[in-house]
Amino acid sequence: MAAGRAWSVVELLKTTTEYFTEKQVGESRLSAELLLGHVLGLKRLDLYLNHERPVSDRELEAFRECCRQRLQGRPVQYIAGEAFFYGSRFMVDERVLIPRPETELVLEHALERLASASPGLEAPSILDIGTGSGCIAITIALRIPGAMVTAVDSSEGALQVAQENARNLGVADRVSFVLADMLDASFPAALAGPFDLVVSNPPYIPGIEWSALQDEVRRYEPRQALVAPEGFEFYRGIASAAPSLLRNGGLLCFELHADAANGVRALCEPGFGAIEVMQDYSGLDRALSCMKK
Fold first, then answer.
1. Is the pLDDT of residue 3 over 60?
2. Which of 290, 129, 120, 125 has the alpha carbon at shortest distance from 195?
C-alpha cells in the first residue's frame, strides 16, 4: 500500500488480502473487505460494485492505520466500531463482547418457543440477562413491536454501549436497562417481573479454558463477560432466580457452552419442564430452553 500512487478499490483489496495472508491474519479477505468498507463508508457488496473507484490519499492513510491495528491482532469489529447481528448494525468496543452468529440461533430458538408456548401474545415482557452490546434485547424489540424488554448487565460500560445501540436502532422507549449482578442474592428484587421469557448468554468459559482461546479474544474482549471460574456459576444463579422472575408457563433460554447441556439440564429440572436442547449448524449443543412448571 505504498503512498504516492493511485489505488483502486479492487487493487487495494487484492494487495491487502495477500499481505494479510502472508502475515497469517485470520479471515484475510474478509478483514480487508470490512476495513476498507468501513473507511469508504461502503458495504461489502458495494466495494465490488465500485471496484474501480479511486481511493484518496486521506482514505488510504486511514485504511493503513486500520490495517496496522489488525496486524497487531485487534478484532475488525473493534477497529470499525461496529458489528452486525441479525442484520442490524450494533456499535461495539472493548467494553462488550463482539456478537457471534451462533447467538442469532439462540435468539431464534427462544422466539420460536415463545411463539409456540404463547400463541397470539403481542406484548410479551422479556428479560435479557448479561446483555452486553444489547444485541439480544434490542433484536427482540425489533422483531416483536409490542415487546417490553428489560436488559441487565453488571458492567456499567456495557450498559452505556447497549443504551446507545437502543437509541440508534429506535427502540429506546421499549428497552429498559438495569445495572445488577446476576449472582447477587438481591438480583430478582431489582427487576419488575413477572416475565414471559428470560434469555441469557451468560459467562460460561471455565477459567482453565481461558489460555486456549484465540489470542485476539484474550487480549481484547472483556474477560468478565466470558469467564465463569468453574463454568456453571451463572447458569446456576440464573436457574435458581428464574422461577421467581417468570410467570407460570414462562420460558427460560440459555446459550450453552458446547459441553454444558447435561449440567444445565440438571440445574433446570427441579423448577422447569419441557426442556429442549437445540444444536447449531456444527452439531454442537447451542441453546437450552425450558418452561416454568
1. no
2. 125
Nearest Cα to Cα of residue 201 among 59, 63, 98 = 98
CA distance 95 to 48: 33
As given in the structure block, the three cell numbers for residue 130 are: 448479561
Domains 7-72 and 95-292 belong to one CATH topology: no
- CATH class of the domain comprising 95-292: alpha beta
Give the residue among 83, 107, 105 at the shortest CA–CA distance from 95.
83
Pair 189, 163: CB distance under 8 Å: no
CA distances to 54, 187, 230, 253, 285 from 292, rounded to whole Å, are: 59, 19, 26, 11, 21
Amino acid occupying residue 39? V
Q: What is the distance between the alpha carbons of residues 85 and 142, in angstroms, rounded to a whole number? A: 12
DSSP code string of 229-271: SSS-HHHHHHHHHHHHHEEEEEEEEEE--TT-HHHHHHHHTTT
> Of 166, 161, 168, 130, whose CA–CA distance to 147 is shortest?
166
Q: Region 159-173: what's the mean pLDDT?
A: 98
Q: What is the mean pLDDT of residues 167-194?
A: 92
Q: Which three cell numbers stand for residue 227?
A: 469467564
Per-domain boundaries in the chain: 7-72, 95-292
> Distance between CA 28 and CA 34 in Å, rounded?
10
Note the CATH number of domain 7-72: 1.10.8.10
Q: What is the pLDDT of residues 27-37, one digit of tens each?
A: 999 999 999 99
Is-contact 238 129, C-beta < 8 A?
A: yes
